[in-house]
Amino acid sequence: MPAEWLNDVRDATEDTLLALADRLPVEAAEALLELATGGKPEVAKPAPAESNPFAHPDAQHRFRVMQHLEQLERPLNYPWEKWTVFLHPAQRQWVERNYSGPARVSGSAGTGKTIVALHRAVFLARSNPDTRVLLTTFSETLANTLRAKLRRLVSNQPRLAERLDVYSLDAIGRRLYKSHIGEPHIISKNQVRDSASKTLCSWS
Fold it and tell me: 47: which DSSP letter?
């Protein structure tokens, strides 16, 4: 753990933990999240001075040494659309695991949480042919991005795609309300603010 972050780590709460992990080096964030979820972080053994520094586990988070030009050319020539939905083999266990209840996947930015969620949705739809699968997010922008990636992921399986829905929480909330009750009437943020101010004034 970088020394300048020690005080923030000690003061971290459940509400601040994930935001803090996003700002830490990958190996420090992984160790912190492992500890927070009841696990015991693995301590990487220092590499001998004469060994290859790129062989150290921490270095492998950031570097991949190519031994041959062909190894580099192959991924560079691969379509970018495929890379945006690529699932690393190490992540497949989280996609195909049989959970007994709700599960939370934690990790710092760029570790592939969104891709795992996409592949998990496809896996559930494929494994349960008589069901529909809903993938939600807090942001409408991210929902649109996920929808586009999902289309790439199941582009050759149109029947499967029909059973996969991606919505922001606001959008699915409105849709469910409309189908069961009717057209929702949403007050504006200014109205919420005015109502809160009046409530505070009445209490004072």
Answer: P
H helices of 54-188, in order, are: 69-77, 80-83, 92-96, 113-127, 140-153, 158-161, 169-180
Domain layout of the chain by residue ranges = 1-65, 88-204
Neighbouring C-alpha atoms within 13 Å toward the C-beta of 194:
5
What does the alpha-carbon distance between residue 163 and residue 158 come to, in Å, rounded to a whole number?
9
Cα 132 to Cα 115, 117, 127, 172, distances in angstroms? 19, 15, 11, 14
- On the CB side of 114, CA atoms within 13 Å amount to 18
The SS3 assignment for 86 reads coil
Asked if residues 166 and 135 have their Cβ atoms less than 8 Å apart, the reply is yes
Q: What is the CATH number of domain 88-204?
A: 3.40.50.300
Asked whether 154 and 120 are in contact (CB, 8 A), the reply is: no
Residue carrying the six token digits 């970018």: 80
Q: Each residue's pLDDT tens digit in the chain (204 positions)?
A: 788 888 888 888 877 887 887 788 777 877 887 787 777 777 766 656 656 766 666 666 666 676 777 766 666 666 666 666 777 777 788 888 888 888 888 766 677 888 888 999 999 999 998 999 999 988 888 888 888 888 888 888 888 889 999 999 889 999 999 999 998 888 888 888 888 777 766 555
**Predicted TM-score (pTM) of this structure:** 0.57
